[in-house]
Amino acid sequence: MSTLEPIRGLLLNRYLLLQAWMVLCMAVVGCFSQPASTEQQKQQSPTQQKQSQQATAQQVESQPGKDQDEEVQMGQEVFNELKAKGEIIESSPLYDQLMPIVEPIARAAQPRYNHPFKFYLVHETQPNAFATPGGNVYVVDSLLYFVKNKEQLAGTLCHEVSHTIHHDTMELMEKREKIKEREIGAAVLMGPTRAHVLAIALLGKLHSLNYSRDAESRADLTGSDVCAQTGYNPWGLVWLFQNFQNANPNEIPQLLSDHPNDQNRIDALERHFKQNPAVFAKFNPDEKSATTFAVAKNAQEVFLR
């Protein structure tokens, strides 16, 4: 027997082991990267008919890409977690007052983002609203009791939609968690997808995302554009900022608490309005012109299970 035979046998065994490991890794990644079609279908359950109309009101040609697929997966992970915690409201009379406001916002914003926008009510004590990658926007029920008029609510929702349009949440989480490609690769081999890793990081910060001042200002301006396109008075967001400049910090919605007294945001919006008179001149800056918004107290809520 040749003296090379034992060496050849050892190399062959190692080669076969390496091949088997690669196949196993590919299988693991494939299993965890499959879209959760069943759960995505369940997302349609809150006010299903209205949500379906909103999602299909304007079809936008999808731009396939890794980042966009990842955003959908990340949004799905957050949805699953909120559902598991019993926070998502499946049905409530509150939807009857919310959906007529959000549907035109979704139609106006849809051409700027290539996944359907969907709105859900969630139950929490502090007034809030937040958007996650993939197009889901969550409106805390207490926010509906908190706003003084329809324009303030519309401005808030347009602002949140704009964070999704600009992919602010994805950029924030990648930057804050300092996730490197090799770390993501190692995590994927252990089980979760990269989107799942990012979603885990996001879940702990949903109520305190702390976007940069530039990101907040950009969302304000884009949000005002979306408001104007829908016909909602974009001054609503300005009124909201003004009302809280001297308010108790504990009374300020979380989505505004990062910069509650930032006069610069008001000034930037007013400059934006003046620089685009063809779009904004027709809207009344006087808050007395606002449309009163009020919902019945202690509205019944059925949670998605």
Provide key terms for this protein.
305 residues; alpha+beta; five-stranded mixed sheet; 14 helices; 5 strands; 58% helix; 6% strand; disordered N terminus
Structure, explained:
It is globular, with a radius of gyration of 23 Å. It is α+β, with helices and mostly antiparallel strands and 305 residues long. Strand 3 and strand 4 form a beta hairpin. The protein has one domain. The protein is built from 14 helices and 5 strands.
Strand percentage? 5-15%
Largest sheet: spatial strand order: 3-4-2-1-5
**What class would the helix/strand composition place it in?**
alpha+beta
Report the principal-axis shape. Answer: globular
What is the count of distinct domains? Answer: 1
How far the N terminus sits from the C terminus, by CA atoms, comes to 68 Å
- Unreliable runs: 2-39, 51-66
Average of pLDDT? 76
Order of helices and strands: HHHHEHEEEHHHHHHHHHE
Largest sheet: 5 strands, mixed
- Radius of gyration using CA atoms only: 23 Å
Share of helix among residues? 55-70%
How many helices does DSSP assign? 14
Number of strand elements: 5
Short précis:
By secondary structure, this protein is an alpha+beta fold. It has one domain (about 50-55, about 65-305). Helix content is about 60%, strand content about 5%.
